[in-house]
Design a protein that fits this description.
This protein is an alpha+beta fold. It has two domains: 7-42 and 50-84 and 168-241, NADH Oxidase (3-Layer(aba) Sandwich), CATH 3.40.109.10; 89-164, no CATH class. 48% of the residues lie in helices and 11% in strands. The protein contains ten helices and four strands, in the order ααβααβααααβαβα. It has a four-stranded antiparallel sheet with strand order 1-2-4-3, sandwiched between helices. Helix 1 crosses helix 8, helix 2 (28-38) crosses helix 8 and helix 5 (90-105) runs antiparallel to helix 6 (116-133).
Length: 245
Amino acid sequence: MTNEKTVSEAINYRRSVRIFDADKSIDTALVKKCIEQASLAPNSSNMQLWEFYHITSKDIIEQIAPFCFNQNAAKTAQQLVVFITRKDRWKKRAKANLSYMDAVFGKNNPKSKQSSREKVARNYYGKIIPFAYVDFLGILGWLKYLLIIVIGFFKPIYREVRQKDMRIVAHKSTGLAAQNFMTSMAAIGYDTCPMEGSDTWRVKRLLGLPFGAEINMIVSCGIRTEKGIYGERFRIPFDEVYKEV
């Protein structure tokens, strides 16, 4: 294994590799370390509404490949990492953040002795987060949305409070974790391919995921072959997408 690449080097090295070398294995422990680095990704409200399923079993990979429509990236993968959103665990994650507040500021600290920072943090995870995530068949979300519209006439306010909005929030955060993972893998010379094309229902059933879990993407892992990269990298001219204001 060569020395780790810099961030810029890793970003430039990373490509979506479609065919992996069957004769070159990758170290499970190193992949796990990259997944740990994925968990350090920035995420909405530090709620960490994600899970990472590290698939090292060749049997499971063979079962998942058809659910990924037998893409070469899936069929030739040495390992897979399934990035999963867990919006349904918002209560548990909010409670974990409040427990962290206890560790930082002290448990059962009277409001009179709380710093402004502690008051804001406890109010955020104790009241604002439940307001954003609590819903019932989408009905409460629309009621909250109407309330937000009214308040929004008078001051700036967070507007993404419907059930579908919070689902997007969870997927955005999990996508950031996936990017951390792929960059970390590139840094140590390992290759990846993010696959959105899959039958997520069948993959969920195979992995025994609960109803509230959703698959964000499946990332195949291995070592590239010469044929694994389908041509030079193409990007729209930067000036076309870059706007300085």
